[in-house]
Amino acid sequence: MKPAIKPAHQFIVCHECDLVCADVPVATGEAASCPRCRAILYRNGSASIDMALALAITSAILLLLLNSFPLLSLKVQQVTRDTTLLRAALAMWDDGMHILSLLVMITTILAPAMQISVAIFLLCVLKFGDARRALGAPLRLLQTLRPWSMIEIFMLGLLVSLVKLQHMADIVIGPALWSCASLIFFTAALTSVLTPRNVWLWAHGADYKQGSKSLPAGVPHG
Asked: Which one-letter DSSP state was computed for residue 134?
């Protein structure tokens, strides 16, 4: 069984009520909560650098498949047309929907690609290089890019469009759509594993001291 993680800092500030708490170790499967508002401060799961790196590489492969193969094919009166994500965005541009086209390219192609690339770089630095380099610009950039990655929003809109088009044409689901669905789950798992706290713990190891006992400590619970 994985041992309890030791504190990454002496103190931690609750993100809900701003109470300064002592950073205490918790056992596997447990979480530390704020003693005032009961918000979860951090959780000790089974995350590791290898697990995060595997998730990041898998996400990169799925993103490549998403942008390489057709999303779907429409067959109307013996005429079949298919499109990829990039071609769909360029078609919007040609139709005069420039802002929408840019938003699609940024939120479903550029931002996810940069997010996954930065995550792989950060994890490779943690595993093979100088771990201190991961605590600066790469981690801040990763946190900045996350809100801009909206593949799940695109997937939701695409599903709504499929429902509306099913009575107008025969729809064949392409490989990219399955890759998109899988990518949503893998990036969500990567986000849950690659947290700033875990990066700090991986970078600095487990040699941390207990926080001051004069401050309220996070309350461990199952």
From this structure: G
- At 46 the three-state DSSP class reads coil
Token representation of residue 150 = 């909206």
Nearest in space to 138 (alpha carbons), one of 156, 121, 113, 157: 121
Whose CA is closest to 42, among 5, 80, 84?
A: 5
Tell me whether strands 72-76 and 170-173 are parallel, antiparallel or unpaired.
antiparallel
Burial class, 220, CB count within 10 angstroms (exposed 0-12 / middle 13-18 / buried 19+): middle
Q: How many helices (H) and strands (E) does the chain have?
A: 8, 8
Beta bridge partners of 21: 12
Instruction: Round the CA-based radius of gyration of the chain to a whole number and report it.
Output: 22
Q: What is the pLDDT of residues 101-159, one digit of tens each?
A: 898 889 888 999 999 999 998 888 888 877 666 677 888 888 888 888 888 888 888 88
Give the separation between CA 123 and CA 98, rounded to whole angstroms: 36
61-78 confidence digits (pLDDT tens)? 999 999 888 888 777 777
d(CA 56, CA 58): 5
